[in-house]
C-alpha cells in the first residue's frame, strides 16, 4: 500500500509540474490532475493535527499566564495554605509533585512535521477587497476596531517537503465587526439600494464596494513565519456582509521586499491564496455580542451560513476531496467568550508555486 501510494504521488507530481507552472487549473484535465494530486497529499493529516495541538499548548501557556489574575488564581500560596493546615499534612506533600508537573508553565518544546506528504490547502478567490499595496508588516492588525479579541495562530507547511515553512510572509485581511473592509466604506452612489444578485454566478452577492479611503489599513497586515513555520496575529473576530460566510482572507508570499519608509512590502512571488472560516456554532454566539449585533444587515439579509456561502467558497475551501479543513480550531482565552479567543489553523502550501497576485473575478 505504501509503495503504491509513493508511486502514485511521484507520478502525479511529475504530471503536476507541467500542468501548474504558472496558473490555476482551468481545463477539465488540469482540474482532474489537481484533484488527484490533492487526494494523494492527504496522508499526513494526523501529523498536521499533532503539530497544531502542540502549538496550541505552547501558545495557551504563554497567553494564559499573562492574563490579569491568572497567577493569583493558581498561586502557590493557595495550595500552601491548604497544605499547612494541621489536618492536611498528606496533601502538603502531594502538592510538591503536583506543583512541578501541573502548575509550572514549562514551555512546550518545538515540534516539526516528520513526513513528506501533507494537506494541500486549495486555492480560492482573493475577492475584491485585497490591496496589492499598503498592508503593513505587523502582528497586531486590530488598530482601533471594536470587537471580540481574536488571536490567530497560523501554521504553514510546504506540501512538497511536508516540513513547516519558515520565513514566508503570511498576509491577512478581514472585515470589521459590522462587515466593512478598510478603505471600502461606501457603495457606488448608484448602487446604494442594490439588492443581492438573484441568479447567476454571483447569486447572493452585492457589487464590490470601491476603495475610496486609501490610508485605512485596519484589519490588514502581514508577518513572516518563524523557524517553526508559525505566524501569530492579534485581531478581532470578523463581522459578516451580504452573501459571504464569516471568513478571513490569506495570501502566502515566499518572496517579498520590505519597504522600510512606510512599513509595508512589495509583493514577490505568491504561493497561495485562501480563506479561513469559523464553526457555525461560534458564529451564532458572536452574532449576539456587541458590536456584532449592530451589523446593518442583521434584520434584513442576516448572516450567510457557511454552507450557503456565495460562489461556493466555503465548500471549495475544503479541497476537491473535502479533506482539507479551512475552519479554525478555537479556544477561549479566559473564562468567558468576551475575554477573547485563540484560533489555530495549519495550511499546506506549495512553496514553489507561483500565482497571479491580483483579482480577475
Ligand atoms: C508545486 O508547484 C510547482 C511549480 O508550479 C509544480 O511543479 C509542482 O508540481 C507543485 N507541486 C504540488 C504538490 O502541487
Ligand atoms: C510605500 O512606499 C513605497 C516606496 O516609496 C511606495 O511605492 C508605496 O506606494 C507606499 N505605500 C503606501 C501604502 O503608502
Ligand atoms: C466598520 O467600518 C465601517 C466603515 O469604516 C464603520 O462605519 C463602522 O463603524 C465599523 N464598525 C465598527 C463596529 O466599528
Ligand atoms: C519520510 C517519511 O517519514 N515517510 C513516512 C510518512 O508516513 C508514511 C505513513 O505512515 C510512512 O510509510 C513513510 O515512511
TrEMBL record:
<feature type="signal peptide">
    <location>
        <begin position="1"/>
        <end position="21"/>
    </location>
</feature>
<protein>
    <recommendedName>
        <fullName>Intradiol ring-cleavage dioxygenases domain-containing protein</fullName>
    </recommendedName>
</protein>
<keyword id="KW-0732">Signal</keyword>
<dbReference type="GO" id="GO:0016702">
    <property type="term" value="F:oxidoreductase activity, acting on single donors with incorporation of molecular oxygen, incorporation of two atoms of oxygen"/>
</dbReference>
<dbReference type="InterPro" id="IPR015889">
    <property type="entry name" value="Intradiol_dOase_core"/>
</dbReference>
<dbReference type="GO" id="GO:0008199">
    <property type="term" value="F:ferric iron binding"/>
</dbReference>
